[in-house]
């Protein structure tokens, strides 16, 4: 055998290799120090060091802060604060208080429209009084727009019972200064009452009586 031949040649015993003197050649089952393994402490430390280095490199590549851009943003924010708020849309004429609407809008529009139709001496009053129709003297007073011309020989009245142009309304007319005999509904089929409709309603009734100069 080899060991015996060796002993004969040297005259000394060749000691067997101990576990501590094992070869440095890695075996197939030995863990790779660079492999990702929870039990491999060396690999964990190396993995942890790489992201930190990458973060520092990324920070170094970022452009420096631009002071001018910051000042521009502050200027825009200041200008935005200085912009006045949008003005609220004014209410429609018909949404104004009842008396203001009648006196400042309805009566002037009524006079202008009837003057264009040939009634130049129209007198219009806005009063609150009893209903002059026969048989209705016991009713409470209500607001009325009274128009008269030809020395009050011709007269019409528009009644507003609820101090609201969209509320219950009525119409009457008379001639020769007599009391009106009937109280008629006024624009009862209209869902939305407007200034133009209120003027047109009077024109329509007077035109039906042939009281306008065009007839």
Automatic annotation (TrEMBL):
Protein name per Swiss-Prot or TrEMBL: DUF2996 domain-containing protein
Annotated region described as Disordered, given as residue ranges: 1-94
Listed Polar residues bias regions: 17-27
Extent of Basic and acidic residues compositional bias: 71-94
Source organism of this protein record: Desertifilum tharense IPPAS B-1220
Any Pfam family hit: DUF2996
Coiled coil regions in record: none
Sequence intervals crossing the membrane: none
């Amino acid at each position: 055998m080899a060991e015996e031949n060796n002993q004969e040649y040297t005259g000394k015993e060749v000691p067997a290799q101990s576990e501590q003197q094992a070869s440095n050649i890695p075996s197939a089952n030995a863990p790779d120090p660079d492999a990702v393994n929870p039990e491999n402490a060396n690999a964990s430390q190396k993995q942890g060091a790489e992201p930190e280095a990458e973060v520092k490199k990324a920070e170094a590549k970022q452009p420096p802060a631009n002071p001018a851009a910051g000042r521009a943003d502050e200027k825009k924010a200041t200008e935005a604060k200085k912009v006045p708020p949008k003005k609220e849309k004014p209410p429609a004429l018909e949404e104004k208080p009842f008396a203001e609407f009648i006196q400042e809008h309805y009566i002037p529009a009524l006079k202008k429209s009837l003057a264009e139709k040939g009634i130049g001496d129209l007198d219009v009053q806005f009063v609150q009084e009893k209903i002059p129709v026969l048989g209705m003297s016991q009713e409470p007073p209500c607001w009325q727009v009274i128009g008269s011309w030809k020395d009050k020989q011709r007269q019409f009245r528009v009644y507003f019972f609820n101090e609201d142009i969209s509320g219950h309304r009525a119409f009457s007319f008379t001639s020769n200064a007599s009391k009106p005999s009937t109280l008629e509904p006024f624009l009862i089929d209209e869902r939305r009452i407007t200034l133009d409709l209120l003027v047109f309603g009077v024109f329509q009734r007077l035109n039906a009586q042939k009281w306008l100069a065009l007839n």
